[in-house]
Amino acid sequence: MNYRKGNLDDCIAIHSLICEMENRELSYDRFYTIYQDQLSDCHYYCLVCEQERAVIGVLNLRFEAQLHHTENIAEILEFAVADTYRNKGIGKEMFSQSCQIAKINGCSQIEVACNQLRENTHHFYMREGMNNFHFKFSKRLCEDSAQQNSIGT
């Protein structure tokens, strides 16, 4: 396995992993634009895992100073490992590396929001030493019902 910072050449593979995670097809054009913007922004870091030059995992981080912590905090925005590579220690290694990357970027804490139905993922985060201290609420501001936030998506 090779773990490295993502680049624009990884976009198609990362898009595929995120679509698999979300269980829906996301607009590639919009995805590409956002990914390209994040690559040039020092507040983001996209960690990828590849095997034989194929991207099989992605963990996307955002770094930000938060008033209520009065510190820099890292947030895992997306984290996906291809189905056939799960339960092989890849997620554990990616999580560990993301914690180190967050520390290097001056962060004192790492956070993640996770869909309520992803119970296996909850257990993973707890095994990695994370605690569930918060609820996260969301409200869709657009009329596009096809993009509705809900449990299970």
UniProtKB/TrEMBL annotation:
What keywords tag this UniProt record? Acyltransferase, Transferase
Q: Give a yes or no for keyword Amino-acid biosynthesis in this entry.
A: no
User: Can you give the residue ranges of the N-acetyltransferase domain?
Assistant: 1-153
State the superkingdom: Bacteria
The entry lists its GO molecular-function terms as: N-acetyltransferase activity
The protein's name in its UniProt record = PhnO protein
- Native source species: Lacrimispora xylanisolvens
